[in-house]
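Supplementary Methods S3. Input chains for the assembly prediction are listed below.
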Amino acid sequence: MQVISRRLGNQSLKPSASISLLKSIYPIYDHHYGPDHGRYVSTLTPKGVGHLVRKGTGGRSSVSGIIATVFGATGFLGRYVVQQLAKMGSQVLVPFRGSEDSHRHLKLMGDLGQIVPMQYNPRDENSIKAVMAKANVVLNLIGREYETRNYSFEEVNHSMSEQLAMIAKEHGGIMRFIQVSCLGASSSSPSRFLRAKAAAEEAVLRELPEATILKPAVMIGTEDRILNRWAHFAKKYGFLPLIGDGSRKIQPVYVVDVAAATVAALRDDGTSMGKVYELGGPEIFTEHDLAELMFETIREYPRYVKVPFPIAKAIATPREMFLKRVPFPLPNPETFNLDEIHARTKDTVVSENALTFNDLGIVPHKLKGYPIEFLISYRKGGPQFGSTISERVSPDAWP
Ligand SMILES: NC(=O)c1ccc[n+]([C@@H]2O[C@H](COP(=O)([O-])OP(=O)(O)OC[C@H]3O[C@@H](n4cnc5c(N)ncnc54)[C@H](OP(=O)(O)O)[C@@H]3O)[C@@H](O)[C@H]2O)c1
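Predicted structure tokens for the full assembly:
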């Protein structure tokens, strides 16, 4: 695939401290892509993917011309992005690091040979180059909202993004780079995760000024990690712990809309290049309102235990204290994640002058209705208890 233009002049690469750390763990082979290498220029075309050769009617068996490497395809958002790319006839390269099972649900989303799983090691630059080699667009959906013994916030959410952007820049044929960050990511955030996400945005834009940054709010959908967890907890224990007083404002968004925005940004004529979009749903909820909607849908009487921040932090702290001190892995935090508790001290809504779904030509769905219909599986009496989609649920109707 020919690259139309190289807009930026030669810039020498100055890897940040985090990349140097990665290099010390896993040596990076500089002799192929040294700073004096002719390809060390931004190689993204200013025209997006509009000029790619397309064939067919635009459906699953057509050829969109897009060959996308989707890092993080095995995650929650990844499955919807892969599905939307595959259904317009794109070839999707799926880097995976875990077992063969982590990607098998993706294989059926495209025609035979269109979804290509490729094992890689996120700490080995050569394996990253291998999964990007045939691509003409790169999407980075990698992220993790808790630390493990092996991976720090900074490595997963910042250094890896920086490294992907550097490799995409060297590649010479990557036309679009889409980085998925997080609404609320800022260098002044009380959360380390959000600070790492902000650092990643900066690093990606430094390497590839034409990259597009998407900052979704908390995502809702069948595999989400908020309503599912709440419903599960409420069913098991008969109440829901609300951290703080539940008055924090959030703007939850349907995951399918975020995937649609990702693909819209990818396919446009280059308008979204170099821009940052904040993707929030059409309604602002307090955490308490969202929990009410969850209880209403699962048809349980809403009972809350308000957990003040200091107590929530005290519950969450031991895991973080012992994480790197004990010789075995600790369970991943669910309800009480210390860093998330820090993040929850601030409202997270789309800022006033931000570019949004609107600017990508997408109208996001309201949550009530189809986007949260998966919650009916938590209903007492089974999912068929009561009516389902588009139903008006009134608390008076509860037994
Ligand atoms: N979920 C939300 O509500 C939400 C809201 C705003 C922004 N975001 C951001 O949106 C992006 C996608 O979110 P998601 O909910 O789809 O995340 P997810 O379900 O947790 O998936 C994350 C992906 O990142 C990969 N990953 C995690 N740690 C990794 C590591 N150390 N090395 C290599 N790969 C690693 C995972 O691979 P494995 O399958 O191998 O673990 C997975 O494919 C993330 O950047 C996230 O921060 C999410």
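Residues 1-13, 26-41 have pLDDT under 50 and may be disordered. The longest helix spans residues 153-171.
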